[in-house]
Amino acid sequence: MSNEPWQIGEIAGPKKALIITKPSVVVGMVKKAKRTLMVVGHQTAEIDLGEENAIDYMIKMADRFKIPIVATANAVSEFVERNYPISWMSAMDIGNRLQDPEWEGLDGKGQYDLVLFIGIPYYMEWTILSGLKHTAPNLKTISLDRYYHPHASWSFSNIKIDEWVTYLKTITGQIEETA
Fold it and tell me: What confidence tens digit (pLDDT) does each residue in 33-49 have?
C-alpha cells in the first residue's frame, strides 16, 4: 500500500489523506455523515470493470445510502441513459460551491459535511481537493479513485483494479467484507 501521490511530482504538504485499508471505513463515514454528496467525473464512464461499469457501482452506492449525485462533463449522459436522476455541474464549479459557506447545497437544505469524489482527472481532482482542504475545514472528503489523493481526508492507496472492484462491491453491499 502506498501513500505516495500517483502523480509523483506533486507535493501535498504536511497534512495528507488517511489511507482507506478497508471498505467498511467508507461505509462507516457515509453512515455517520449528516449530508453527503457524490461528485462523479467523466472518467468514471470510461472505466470498464468487466461485468459492470464504474457508473453502475456509483448508482448502487447512491441508492444504498440515499446520496445525491453531481455528474460532471459527459458522465451526465451515462446517468441519463440509465434514467437515473442527477444534477449536472462542472467539476471546478462544484469545487467552488463546496467552499462557499453561503451555499445551501443542491436542495437548499444546508451544507454538506462529506463529499465523495470519483472519476475526475487526477490533476483536476488534486486541485479541487487541495482547495477544499484549505478553504472548507469542516468538509470531509473521500476519494473513491484507485489512486492515492493526498489532499482528500481519506483515500485509497494506489491499488490494482481487481482490489478496487472488490472494494466497490463491498461498499455497495454486493459482497461482505472479509477480515
Answer: 999 999 999 999 888 78
